[in-house]
Amino acid sequence: MTPPSWLGQGWLAPHYLGWLLHGAAMTAALALCVSLAATLLGILLCAAQDSRQRWLRWPARLFCSLHRNTPLLVQVLLWYFGAGGLLPDAAMQWLNTPHQWALPLGFSLGWPPFEWLAAWLALSLYSACFISAELAAGLNTVARGQRLAARALGMTEWQIFRYIVLPQALRVIRQPLLGQYTAVIKNTSLTMAIGVAELSYTSRQVESETLLAFQAFAVATALYLLLVIATQLAGSRHAAEGRIR
Description:
The protein is an all-alpha fold.
């Protein structure tokens, strides 16, 4: 099939499109793992900052301030090169060696490479700080009388946070939280700096191999857009189901 003239000279061969699809799958997997870890850590950070215990509140605030006010690319490079330099050689050798764990029903789980782990850790810590800030904003919308009533019933601070305050805060910040997950997808592009074969990395590879820069980055842009739209649709559907209940 002859491509339209406005696409320029030539179009990408099928195997190059396969490279880009593989990169998109890597981006989706990394973004999903980061979103899960960042949400859990963000809840813990928010609970620590909301605590009446100083030894919990101040370290959590310092941790969030440090990560929110430094460039994400620097954090990615720090975890990859810094942590890699601090770990013992034996640990680094084990991390860089492919591992397979047998799962039931004949499935197996492969251990990801070190650059993937460093990217996951850096993105999770960075995103968790923003998610905790969104949660803190949601907590402020919950009436103070509900906390006082829960304390009067004998609930602990964690029980009040877990069963009274957190569900209401999550309902309020649903849309900003969805924006954070969308930002995670786009932030994964920075991990190409340490060699993670996500979508930006593979589009750069395709451009280098074919010299078809417009075609390679146009497909990558379209795939990023599809991932973001899929995330927003999933979030909107979840919100709609919540309203129905």
